[in-house]
Design goal:
Blueprint lengths: L1 H12 L7 E4 L8 H4 L3 H9 L7 E7 L17 E5 L9 H11 L4 E7 L1 E2 L4 E2 L2 H16 L5 E5 L8 H13 L2
Parallel strand pairs: 1-2, 2-3, 3-4, 4-7
Antiparallel strand pairs: 5-6
Helix pairs in contact: 1-3, 5-6
């Protein structure tokens, strides 16, 4: 299924140039870790680039997974590590996590993921920690240590208005 979708996206990207890549989210749900060594990452990458070789393959990585050896088979074929801090209590360690991500994924772009909602706590991310996260991301972006950030999710804006307003304001002030 993943390979078929990668091929479909590759062909679709020829008509829609704003499609620049594909993301593998939560690798543990896609195939077993044993299958990584059977060439699945390479086959997915090849299929993604079959019609459009410029497409980039993103890989979601959680900070609590940075110690795992499962990523090695992905290194030759992925382009971007999309780094997420799962628990808001760990946000003060973001810069440390980016350093570790750069070690695990040498030479790969790093895009930091930003949650509006903390899923384990079932609440909005506390604004003081969100502010610290965005200030750290801005500093890392200015220093070239990350290439960007992504925000999850538009569907949560109405659920967490203060967090959404903070993000809007931060982007407005720093664009």
């Amino acid at each position: 299924t993943v390979r078929k979708e990668a091929g479909d996206l590759s062909r679709l990207s020829l008509d829609f140039p704003n499609v620049t890549g594909a993301i593998i989210d939560d690798t543990s749900g896609i195939f077993s870790y044993e299958a990584y060594n059977e060439g699945w990452p390479q086959r997915i990458s090849e299929t993604l680039r079959s019609a459009n070789p410029r497409l980039k393959l993103w890989l979601v990585v959680y900070t609590h997974e940075l110690h795992m050896d499962q990523w090695r088979p992905f290194l030759p074929c992925m382009d971007i590590a999309n780094l997420w801090v799962w628990k808001y209590q760990d946000l003060p360690r973001l810069e440390e996590y980016v350093d570790r991500c750069a070690e695990v994924f040498p030479g790969k772009e790093i895009v930091v993921g930003c949650y509006i909602r903390d899923y384990p706590a079932k609440t909005g991310v506390p604004l003081d920690l969100m502010q610290a996260q965005f200030e750290t991301m801005l500093k890392l972006l200015e220093r070239g240590r990350i290439t960007g950030y992504s925000i999850l999710a538009g569907c949560l804006i109405d659920m967490h208005p203060p967090q959404a307003e903070f993000i809007r304001g931060f982007i407005e002030r720093h664009s």
